[in-house]
Specification:
Blueprint (H helix, E strand, L loop, with lengths): L4 H10 L2 H19 L3 E7 L3 E7 L2 E7 L1 H10 L3 H12 L11 H5 L2
Antiparallel strand pairs: 1-2, 2-3
Length: about 110
Amino acid sequence: MNSTGFIRGYMAKNMETERFLEHVVWVLERQLQEWDESYQLQVFKQEDFIISVQNNKKIINVPISANRLKDLQSASPYSLDRYIWVQLKEKGLEWKDKNGNYLDYVFP
């Protein structure tokens, strides 16, 4: 999957935090679906946000506080993506080969 750093930088600086999270989750879902079409992602808002990744019968949840979300959004355009990917990998998500430049932006 391909990404454009300039556009993402603009989005990170100008989008409302919750909307930015929804966009990042949408991008993650697209990347995961390139590897396996059965992936589905959802964002739940409780006291914190929970990003739920489901593939067939396996579910991985990644919690993130509103403060952490704001900090990651302001740190760099792909910091939030990186945080979520690292959490997913630590919780057992297996990665496939890169296709496109998106993950190169996330992990420079």
